[in-house]
Write a structure and sequence with these properties.
With 631 residues, this protein is of the alpha+beta class. The chain contains seven helices and 29 strands. Strand 19 and strand 20 form a beta hairpin.
């Protein structure tokens, strides 16, 4: 009996000693963790910076990462031992039957084990945090672990690269069978890259199938349209290209998914490659075509200056027309200079003292739904030093959006030389200027009608008037709300990023060059921009793919709004007023807080903090990990 008691006592003493050693080991691992963390920082910091902006990451056999993972495994084992010791101490206490020696030893084992547990958990938390952050910064755990779920191959050129916009959008659904396919580039392109035989015949309209493929996704590239199966047109700047299939897409029986491939052989007008760097393999997207043909004509949904206002507008106002659907960009853009360029599918007239067409240019933006007119009369500069253009002052201004001549199958318009003599949607339907549900086009001999007063309707144009002052409006736009907010956690990874401005904004300045979204760590990610106007304000929305969720590590994302965005009065975002991370904070970027920003030179708003230098630099509490223009 005494031998048994002696054996038990020896076991209890051994466990007591082991529990004290466990505490000692926990302290050792705590200091080891801190040492490894400091070494990681010095060893990997430069490498992490060098690899940001690439999707390759660091070699997975990096010795620092291996050692850290070993530490994590050891700490996990120690955690298991802790559980065993606590259970053992509890068992001794429960079976002590009041023996003071056993009770004392049981309490000592549990006490030392709990202390060791606290130290081990601290060590584990520090190790996990340092390892996760440094692996992400180095590009090991980030890109490789989410590539299958989040990265869409051949997509990054939209927004981050050479492509400004396209229609249909990525993964769009319910696209009509008679749609055209449109791509807008950020620079002038070599037409021969898209038009077969253009180098020898500039009137050619055949598709260059060596660079552009359009085909039913399920059937593969061998089913792509032949060169004469697509009519190609383009704008005068060679930035917008329209691909119009000769035959209807899809079928009348079932929805059909289509793929469009823009190859790496496409070059810019200067001969340089269009797709370079991480986007060097080209661009590709898909959309789904319905069984229906679009026979609904487009209508006007909003105009600037607002038609409901009776006030006179300062003469540097930009004229904008927003439509109910995407418009054919070749038919909706152009210049009238009264000498060599006579675009008149839309027109602006000075009405006082006779009707005179105002010289200027119509451009398209807002996902092909808004056309913007800017005159060529320079009348000042904005805070960024850019020229401001003005309408005639103290005048009545009339704006006309012209319907196109109807073809043989109304509301489809008559196409001549690859374009139309009026405004049409992407499916070629002529403008329905009075929103009647039908269109009579621009030719009285084709169809006639009566307006609500009984007068004969000669066309389906959309027209409105406003008056101008002789003043130049210099109000600087401000960002008044952000969603998600500055530094916000747990943002929905599917929602658009919304930026609300204090005034109406000019559509053609809201591009992916001026409003962008960048992931950190960097990976190939597309984004596009569109706007919504209210009576007095504009909200700009950034559309993007599914962002990395918090369940998968939740990466950081940086929306960037440059001072090249402009109000409808052509005034840039300078100084950059915007919300701060803490509402009402005096160190934030709100207007009127903490002194005159123009005098202090803090004209930039970087992550909610004022800065005297652009936000791409490490200033003002904001650090973009790479320069967007590099990609």
């Amino acid at each position: 009996m005494s031998k048994v008691l002696k054996s038990e006592t020896h076991d209890h003493d051994s466990m007591h000693v082991f529990s004290r050693k466990l505490t000692f080991l926990g302290v050792i691992f705590l200091f080891l963790t801190l040492g490894i963390g400091a070494w990681f920082h010095s060893a990997l910091a430069q490498t992490a910076l060098d690899t940001v902006g690439t999707s390759s990451g660091l070699p997975t056999e990096n010795i620092a990462i291996i050692i850290a993972r070993i530490i994590r495994i050891v700490l996990s084992i120690l955690g298991i031992i802790v559980v065993v010791l606590i259970l053992y101490g509890g068992w001794i206490f429960m079976t002590s039957q009041g023996d003071p020696t056993k009770v004392k030893k049981a309490i000592a084992i549990i006490k030392n084990t709990v202390i060791g547990l606290i130290i081990i958990l601290t060590s584990y938390a520090i190790t996990s945090f340092i390892l996760d952050r440094l692996i992400d910064a180095a590009g090991l755990g980030g890109v490789s672990s989410v590539s299958d779920q989040y990265i869409e191959p051949l997509s990054g050129s939209l927004g981050g690269g050479i492509i400004e916009d396209h229609y249909p959008a990525r993964n769009a659904m319910d696209i009509p069978r008679n749609t055209k396919i449109i791509v807008t580039f950020k620079e002038a392109m070599d037409v021969a890259s898209f038009v077969n035989g253009y180098a020898d015949d500039t009137t050619s309209t055949d598709l260059n199938v060596g660079n552009v493929l359009i085909y039913p996704t399920a059937l593969g590239e061998t089913s792509a349209f032949l060169a004469d199966g697509v009519v190609v047109s383009y704008d005068v700047h060679h930035e917008i290209f329209v691909f119009d299939p000769v035959d209807l897409l899809g079928s009348a029986e079932e929805d059909t998914n289509y793929t469009v491939v823009l190859g790496d052989g496409i070059v810019k007008a200067d001969g340089e490659e269009a797709f370079t760097g991480v986007y060097g393999d080209g661009y590709q997207w898909t959309f789904e075509v319905s069984t229906e043909v679009d026979l609904t004509p487009p209508t006007v949904t909003y105009v600037i200056p607002p038609i409901t206002s009776t006030d006179a507008f300062d003469r540097n106002i930009s004229v904008e027309i927003t439509f109910s659907e995407a418009m054919d960009p070749v038919a909706a853009t152009g210049t009238y200079d009264g000498m060599s360029a006579f675009f008149d599918n839309a027109a602006v007239y000075q009405m006082t003292g006779g009707q005179y067409q105002v010289t200027g240019t119509f451009e398209i933006g807002n996902n092909y739904r808004t056309i913007t007119f800017t005159t060529d009369d320079v009348c000042g500069v904005d805070p960024c030093g850019d020229e401001i253009y003005c309408l005639p002052g103290l005048q009545t201004i009339q704006v006309e959006a012209h319907a196109a001549t109807l073809g043989t199958e109304p509301p489809g318009a008559l196409m001549t030389s690859g374009t139309y003599d009026g405004l049409t949607d992407i499916c070629g339907n002529s403008l329905d200027g009075d929103d009647s549900g039908t269109t009579i086009g621009s030719d009285l001999d084709t169809v006639t009608g009566l307006d609500e007063t009984g007068a004969i309707i000669t066309n389906d144009d959309y027209t409105w008037d406003f008056t101008t002052t002789n003043n130049v409006n210099d109000t600087v736009p401000e960002i008044i709300s952000l969603d998600p907010g500055v530094g916000e956690d747990e943002a929905d990874n599917l929602d658009e990023v919304d930026v609300e401005f204090s005034v109406l904004m000019k559509a053609t300045t809201l591009s992916t060059s001026t409003v962008s979204l960048w992931p950190d760590p960097f990976y190939e990610m597309w984004f596009s921009v569109h706007k919504t106007d209210s009576t007095t304000k504009t909200t700009v929305s950034i559309t993007h793919p599914t962002l990395v969720s918090t369940e998968d590590g939740g990466w950081d994302y940086y929306p960037v709004i440059t001072n090249d965005v402009k109000s409808s009065y052509q005034i840039c975002l300078y100084p950059a007023y915007g919300p701060s991370a803490t509402e009402g904070s005096l160190v934030g970027c709100e207007a009127g807080l903490g002194g005159d920003r123009e005098e202090t030179g803090e004209v930039y708003c970087c992550d909610g903090v004022r800065s005297s230098t652009p936000c791409a630099a490490s200033t003002g509490g904001f650090e973009l990990p790479y320069t967007p223009s590099e990609y």
